[in-house]
Structures are given as structure tokens and as C-alpha cells.
What we know:
It is a single chain. By secondary structure, the protein is of the alpha/beta class. It contains 4 helices and 15 strands. 15% of the residues lie in helices and 42% in strands. Strands 2, 3, 4, 5, 6, 7, 8, 9 and 10 form a 9-stranded mixed sheet that branches. The protein has a 6-stranded mixed barrel with strand order 1-14-11-13-12-15. A hairpin with a 6-residue loop joins strand 3 and strand 4. The termini are close together.
Amino acid sequence: MYEIPIGVSARHIHLAPEHIDILFGQGYELKTLKPLSQPGQFAAEETVAVVGPKGRFDKVRILGPARGNTQLEISRTDAFALGVDAPVRLSGNIDGTPGIRIVGPKGEVTVERGVIVASRHIHLHTDDAARMNVKDKQIVSVKTQGERAVTFANVVCRVSDQFALDMHIDTDEANAAGIRNGEKGTLIP
């Protein structure tokens, strides 16, 4: 039986370098607000507004460092509020996804794709994966404890020697299960 720490991932955005330049000014460097569970990743001080056909969210946190593609990760509830039909996808899999308008202090950009509801997933260091006998892209379940205990099915394992052990769920999933950041679940291979 292996315990997995659970992180609750609120709506956030990853920006491509060219979009950082448009939104914040040429050559702008994101400032670190706080480090995240994954090595080298951080919540930036900076935020942007995202505007959909039906609604808008101000102060959406940027996660750094810059990525190859701009990607907005939201919950299903957020998707309804924005008026977009965001599919459940692994981070980086943005083909065929809706776009969004992003507004920063120096400019704005409309991306044609990149809005997703992130698939629940576990980041595992290669050592953790070996110890738990799971492979990259393997689908597992994770059982939680507490008053609103649930078993999350269809959890994707993401294995790399660059990762630290942490499961990520969105705010809708966390609220339904009564989970807060740092609580633990049990891996069911």
C-alpha cells in the first residue's frame, strides 16, 4: 500500500514566451511567488485575465517557467462560467481544444487552442515508480480517506526523473471529495 500526497490545482495558465512578451512587454521575466511541488516549477507573482464567450476570470495565476505552448487549465465549473467546452486532457495535449482571450497589463492575445480540464494524474519520480511498480502513462486508481472518501479512477501516471511524487486534481474534484492540499490517498494499481 503506497500513500500519495494530493495537490489541489486551481485554475491557472502556462504561457509561451511570445505571449509573455505580448502580455507583459518584450523580454519580460516572470517573478517567482512560490515554488510548486514539481522541481523548477513555480507560481508566478503575475496574473492575467481570461475572457471566454460567456464569462471572464481576472487574476488567473501564471505558472512558470514559460512553456512551448500557452495552455489554460480550468475545472469543469470554470468551463461553464467561461462558456467554453474544454475537454479533459493531459497537460500538453491541446490539439482540438478551444481557445481563449488573454489580457495582460501591456497587451492581449487570443489563442486558437489550449483550454483544457486537466486529467487527474500522478507525477512520479522514476525511483517512486519503480518502488510502486507502475509505468509512465499507466492508469491507476487512488482511494482517499475521510468523511467524503472517494476512489479516483482513471488517474494517469506520469513518470520522469525530473518529477516529485504528487497527485494533481482540480478544485471540482477536491471539493466533491472534501480534500485539501497535502492530504494523502492510497495507490490502487
